[in-house]
What we know:
Elements: H1 2-5, H2 17-29, H3 37-51, H4 54-67, H5 72-86, H6 88-106
Amino acid sequence: MKQVYEEDDTGEGPDGFFGMTAERMFSEVWSRQVLTVRERRLLLLGLLVGQGMDDMLERHLDTALRSGELSPAELREVVVFLTLYAGWPRASRLHAQVEELISRSAGV
Length: 108
């Protein structure tokens, strides 16, 4: 989880549900060797845009930029690529998120 989100705070509740599901997701799925974390992140970004999951999308965009997995130019290219597949409204929101994130990370 730390590698994927660059943090390890699970915010676990009393029932342990998040910990139980997160353990499987991060120890078994994200750590497989066939795809890199970067490749998995790109797939997930497409899915999150397509499903309109903006909160989770913002978290993954931020982590991808902070970790160096994706550069500002690559994030912008993700926007261009997904525009034709996800549709204009979702791509427009993605574009705004990416540009705001890049501005914040550059200290602008």
